[in-house]
Amino acid sequence: MAKVTSLNVNGKKLAVDVDSTVSLLAVLRNDLDLTGSKYGCGEGQCGACTVLLDGVATRSCITQVGRAAGKQITTIEGIEKDGKLQPLQEAFIKADAMQCAYCTSGMIMSASALLSRNPKPNREEIVTGMNGNICRCGTYQRIVEAIQIASGQATKEVAR
Amino acid sequence: MIEEQSLVNGIEPDRYELFESQNYNFHFARRDFIKAFGLGIVFIVPAARALAQQRGQGESGRGANERLPNDIDAWIHINEDGGVTAFTGKVEVGQNTRTTMTQSVADELHVPLDSVHLIMGDTDLTPFDMGTFGSRSTPTMAPQLRKAAAAAREMLIAMAAAQLQVEPKDLRIVDARFLNHDKSKTLTLAEVAKGRKLVKVIPDDIAITQPKDWTIAGTSAEKVDAKNFVTGKHRYTSDVKREGMLYGKVVRPATFNATLVSVDAKAAEAIPGVKVVTDGTFIGVVAPDQQAATKAANAIAVDWKSPGQPTNAELFDLLRKPATGQRGGGGSRPQGSITDGLAAADKKLEQTYTVQYIAHAPLEPRAAVAEWNGDKLTVWTGSQRPFGVKSELAEAFHIPENKVRVIVPDTGSGYGGKHTGECAVEAARLAKAAGKPVKLVWTREEEFTWAYFRPAGVIDIKSGVKNDGTITAWEFHNYNSGASGIQIKYDIPNNDIRFHPSNSPLRQGSYRGLAATANHFARESHIDELAHAVNMDPLEFRLKNIKDDRLRDVLQAAAKSFGWGKAKPERGHGFGIACGFEKGGYIATCAEVAIEPPSDKEDKTNKRVRVIRVVEAFECGAVVNPLHLRNQIEGAITMAIGGALFESIQFENGKILNPHFASYRVPRFNDSPAIEVVLVNRKDIPSAGAGETPIVGLAPAVANAIFNATGVRLRALPLVPKGLTVS
Questions:
Q1: CB–CB of B277/B425 below 8 Å?
Q2: What is the ipTM of this complex?
């Protein structure tokens, strides 16, 4: 079986030693201890495992690690810059766009990909773009608000 | 515990939510505390029960004995740096109780929010707690923590006064600093705690700050550790890693209630690094990585013998049969006479309502990491009942409870679905065989199949109403789904309300709000039917039959914000209203639905029902954190849309037919309506919990709105799993 021996994760080249058919999620979490990406279903249905591959939102649970080799992998751990939260992260806190927050990493990664291809999405575009991510606590309205805040187009303050 | 008792005696069948206090001997000696905490000051909060006993025995000895009260609810430690740590057996599962309880402690102690840290749900570090369920953290635990903080504040003021050589009444504490009247003498909390080694039991007559005087509580403080979640740093159970840890996998029976005939594990054992563990009907494997564990489990050939088992089609007939050998039964004493009430009525109505089993589907499936050190077992697991899981483990391994530690990291939600410890027991069994720590994370399919479900149920209602809108008779029978929220706030002189336990074909248990959703759905749908029977507006009809001011207030508040009675729904739309009461919270929900053409994926003959706008008014006494309360209500409404419109567990012959998110649909972004929350803040009433009750109004409001839009009355939850057939 082909082996993968290195991955580009969050701007760093990291050594691994895994079969290429193993899921990227398992390698990130178990081999590299990057546990911010979550297992929610293992079937690409919930989005909790979302990472970026060359900037494209990807379900890492159904992506073989061999397909990620050679690409730039960005996980939630790679979003902060110089120890500072980025606008999406700040906006999620400001809008209180989480409860148990198990979905939050995946939400932020999906939203990040959405904003890079569409910097000012309207509500409908956000709903369509984010529909593959499940928040079982039901904070969708606040996540939409957070994405609007992060893209500088919040129309109303989140009700406090 | 008045709240607890009223739930037990009144209506709540304990097989769905566990209220028994365990026979727990909590003997902590003063010196143990000092050893555990080192320097600083510890304030112990005896449980209400312990205080009652102490009063019975007289006051002698309290605070002087080496031995502390047996029954302790919480404790607070002030360390030498002036940092405050509060300890509670409650857990955080997304309801933001960590934040609101931290606010309560900071508020009472007069210290900044960020100087308070809560240790939660660790059976070695926190006092015994029955569990985090029943919306009881806010009404019962927060006041206990407040008492500790209030006592701490007063005792610290006395110590600071002695240090500063002033009278205690001349000192106050502001932002963790003690100040005298002209601020000429000050001390920090750290300066008072420094070098101390004290354990103090708080007096039980301490007064706590009333909501009108709150400064930190009552505000929209953000989630205390939000930064850890938006950076992925928080470690849930499934993220815990231990030295030398292996990965586990359990081989599941072919069906429910299957018996094991034979096992052949040779192929699995041949895989390098794999160990197969069989113990009675338990079959599992451990391996150095997750992939090998899965591969090994799949390589085990097992022959199971399965009995024939029912399907959804037979469900409601089965539930009508009385239970065998189960405790329970409930309802209140009948009032008046149903016969007389019906005789006095102008219109009579008899209808049946049903609800299907649904799944909690917490996004973090059950997970556990187990580690044995000699005969001591430590398990990290996401549970709403850390001490319950501790007992399960002690029982499963025949070891004393003091050899078991359960640690519950803030967990990826529960909704009442994580009361049990099966995953913890499995991980511990594997770890014991492996001689190494083992992580076990259930797959989504396992979570959908081997957890437990919200009970299904059948509800029969017989009623009578006069033409002027007065309800004269109310007979209500709930089969199986439960008695939560079964009581009425309608003033009906003749009523007979009962809960009948059944033999459930599937494993069932607690769920957010329990049966309050089913009972509100049936009752509020039926009330709507009665209103239409006498040609009255559904809001007016409710107000005519409800005297309770708190319920009237939320009804009127929701109706006002929704614009009820002001505008007619546009074509193809409908408005619905519902109200209710449960666990100290009052709720009214208005919903607008749109009946739309079918989408491409759905059956072309059926229309699509979308909930497009919801206004919900909620009153739960004094609001501790408006931001998180709003969020909680919005979340409950969103979750409720699933159970109202499409969620339903499909089963056949001991198998779950839809154990995936692809086949079990949960609400997504495009199901999410515009939600407006109206908070009715009653600072004159003690705070009640809010994690559950906001879920109960949505289903009937939506059913009533569908009737308003189409004239079709739907009496089964989910309402439109395959869309709406309009003839």
A1: no
A2: 0.97
